[in-house]
């Protein structure tokens, strides 16, 4: 019995599309109704979450889709997971939901046990955690922690007191109390839609138009030739890595304000599923150490098993470990991991808010993490990803124009490919829905697969059948 069968004995066996158009008439009517008091323009269809089960999502018109998008990569175990439903009846969850502790001032007696459970799935080399509310918030908090850490080191250590000039100037948003530090991020990156995170985001203009932004540098992210393992591509991709690394170091040295932190996704997800090699990620560590820059890995979308390891950057075995790793999405919580005790600010209330995250979401995170460990779901993702990628390679030989730059080999089910144009990509995604598969895109013309961790070979076979039919329809 597979994990999906164990969790979801009543999971549908096949997709079922009953409307001629998607969204169907019920979804269209409800989207229109929502639009009267909520911005519903981004809705693909309206979901009946009561009927959704396991790896299948059901819409308001009773269309049943195999879901390879999973709430924008944020559902780890599947819909209506019994272990998470069981958690709802515990006293710890009742306290977290009804009394919502202000954890910084009034932590619950069970908080340490919750954190210990979460720390079971921490990245290698990280042993402390700070909780947040969303992926954007996680990156904002990590940037804030990096700035305080950087300033503390420049000041001479955590025991050196603030000067009167620092204390007075910060009240007017002026230096030295409000220093002009910067964060180096990468073109095509997506780190969120807030202010510090928005200044680091560089995927689509719509994410940050009309927002005041920090004047921070963006380096080039490597653009590799695929497949990765041919001799000519290995050589070309090493040259590309070195080209981008030189840009990074030149920016750190020359930027108008001190670069306090470097922020990078191990795979740029929203920006097009662009992968960074182990060599690139390790050399960034060397550069950040050389120039005393805080190294932050954004694992909001890649984290918690999606790539066949708990954390994608672990493929690179970066030494020494990076300074901060942010998380959200599949964790159903948010925050950052760290290991240096000096990353905790030297004074209380500097990294603080009313709830210091959300203990209810941390309880869910802990349960998800335990289920991943108990069922060895990371190994399953790796196995199923290998199975799925091999089938996609066969399709690529049949339809090379519809499977350009197929990537994600050896990265679990975190797989993507390009269509010749954005218009064709959108057409393929629409056809896939009509054939019973909910799939997402990224960047201008990429298709990305983001199934749950319980997605297995039988689901892969159903998807490949639907994809084969859809690509054939696209090309006819």
Brief digest:
With 476 residues, the chain is of the alpha/beta class.
Please give the structural blueprint:
Layout: H1 3-7, H2 25-34, E1 56-58, E2 64-67, H3 70-73, H4 82-87, H5 91-99, H6 111-119, E3 128-132, H7 135-155, H8 164-169, E4 182-186, H9 196-200, E5 218-219, H10 231-254, E6 259-264, E7 267-268, E8 274-275, H11 278-290, E9 294-298, E10 324-327, E11 334-338, H12 359-374, H13 377-398, E12 404-407, E13 415-418, H14 422-434, E14 437-438, E15 440-442, E16 446-449, H15 457-474
Parallel strand pairs: 2-14, 4-5, 4-6, 6-9, 9-10
Antiparallel strand pairs: 1-2, 3-11, 7-8, 10-11, 12-13, 13-16, 15-16
Explain this structure to me?
- It contains 15 helices and 16 strands.
- The protein has about 475 residues and is an alpha/beta fold.
- It folds into two domains: about 5-80 and about 375-475, Alpha-Beta Complex (Aspartate Aminotransferase, domain 1), CATH 3.90.1150; about 100-355, Type I PLP-dependent aspartate aminotransferase-like (Major domain) (Aspartate Aminotransferase, domain 2).
- Strands 3-11-10-9-6-4-5 form a seven-stranded mixed β-sheet, sandwiched between helices. A four-stranded antiparallel β-sheet has the order 12-13-16-15, with helices on one face.
- Helix 13 (about 375-400) packs parallel to helix 15.
- It is globular and about 70 Å long.
- About 45% of the residues are buried.
- Keywords: Aminotransferase, Pyridoxal phosphate, Transferase.
